[in-house]
Amino acid sequence: MSKTAITAEPGIPMVIVTREFDAPRDLVFRAHTDPDLLVQWLGPRDLTTAVDRYEARNGGTWRYRQTDADGNTYGFHGVFHGDPSPDGIVQTFEFEGAPGHVCLQTVTLADRGGRTLLRTVSASPAASAPPRPSSALGSSTSTSSPCTRSRSAPADGYSPARTTWS
Amino acid sequence: MSKTAITAEPGIPMVIVTREFDAPRDLVFRAHTDPDLLVQWLGPRDLTTAVDRYEARNGGTWRYRQTDADGNTYGFHGVFHGDPSPDGIVQTFEFEGAPGHVCLQTVTLADRGGRTLLRTVSASPAASAPPRPSSALGSSTSTSSPCTRSRSAPADGYSPARTTWS
Asked: Of A87, A133, B63, B119, which one has the greatest count of Cβ atoms within 10 A?
C-alpha cells in the first residue's frame, strides 16, 4: 500500500486524494460499496461507524453515524448519482453538524497491473469565497473544506427532521 | 433588473452567478421552488421545459425535460440537501446526456431593501484536472463546466434506467 497523497490548493474548492492499494480493483470497489466492509476501515480510527442505510445504486441514499469514546455521535448522509462502478462512484456528502455545507465526491479506481490506484475528488460550492488572485496562492486560510469529517459539533444540537434522511 | 455577472476562473471548478432582481426575496424564492413558475423562466429561451417531479424538500428529488423545435429532448435531474429556504437552496444537478458529470449548486437570496440579490454557486469534481499553476491562469481551456446546460447530446442515446430518476 502506498502513501496517501492529498492535494488541496488554496482558493480552489476541491480536494483530491490518491492512494494505491495492493489489491485488485473489484475488491477495492467492494470495500467502498458493501456496508459490512465499509465500517471496518472508515476513519477516523478512534470512532465506531454504524451504517443506517447504504443503497449503492443510482438515486440511492446512504447514512452512517460515527460515535466517539464519550458517546458523542456524528451523522453523515448523501445520495448516489448513477450506478456505482469501479469507473466511478459519484455521491454527495453532508456532515449533519454543518447542514447545508454539502460536497460532491467522485471516486475512480484504475487497474495498475493487479494493484489499484484510487482517486477521490471532492468539490463544494460551500467553499465559495470569491476566487483569489494568483498572488494569493500559498495562503493557507482559504480552503476550509466541508468535505472533511469534522468533529467540532456533535449531532445532538440540531433538528434531525431537517438535516437527516431517515 | 440588473445585469447577470458570471465568474468562472480557469482552473477553478466553480461557477458563480449573481443577479439582482426588482422583486422581494420571497417571490424570487418561489420562482425557484414552485415548478409552475420554474417552467416560465428556465432557459434556454428557445426550449420548452416540462417538470416531471420537483420535490423542494430535504432529500426530495427533481427532474425536468427540455425540448427543442426539432423535438430533441434533454433530461436533467438532481436531489435537494436540506429544506430549501431563501437562505439556501442546495441541490445536485446532472444533465442526462453526460451521466456522471454531476455538479452541486447553492442558491442564496439576499434582501436589498425590497430588491433581491441572487447568488448561485456551482461546483463539480468532474472538472478535476489537477490544479494548474498560477502561470496558467488566463488560459480559457481548463473550465469545461458540467453545470452548463449543454445541448450537444440529445437524451435518446443512453439507457434511461441508468441515468434518470423516475
From this structure: B63
**pTM greater than 0.80:** no
Residue B65 lies in a domain: yes
Selecting from B59, B90, B130 the residue whose C-beta is nearest the C-beta of A165 gives B59
**Inside any domain, residue A157:** no
B contacts of A12 (beta carbons < 8 Å): 11-13, 131
Distant-in-sequence, close-in-space partners of A71: CB < 8 Å, separation ≥ 6 = none
CATH, residue B97: 3.30.530.20
Contact criterion met (CB < 8 Å) for B14 and A131: yes
Find residue A92's DSSP bridge partners.
Answer: A104
3-state helix/strand/coil string of B100-153: CCEEEEEEEEEEEECEEEEEEEEECCCCCCCCCCHHHECECCCCCCCCCCCCCC
Our count of domains for chain B comes to: 1
Q: Domain residues for B123?
A: 4-148
Residues on chain A touching B137 (C-beta within 8 angstroms): 134
Binary contact (A81, B104; C-beta < 8 A): no
Query: pLDDT tens string for chain A (166 positions)?
Result: 578 999 998 888 899 999 999 999 999 999 999 999 999 999 899 999 999 999 999 889 999 999 999 999 999 999 998 899 999 999 999 999 988 889 999 999 999 999 999 999 999 987 664 433 333 333 333 334 456 544 343 333 333 334 565 5
In a domain, B120, yes or no: yes
Closest C-alpha among A9, A103, A152 to residue B106: A103
A12 to B12: CB separation less than 8 angstroms, yes or no = yes
For B93, left (φ over 0), alpha (ψ -120 to 50), or beta?
Answer: beta
In a domain, A144, yes or no: yes
Respond yes or no on whether ipTM tops 0.85: no
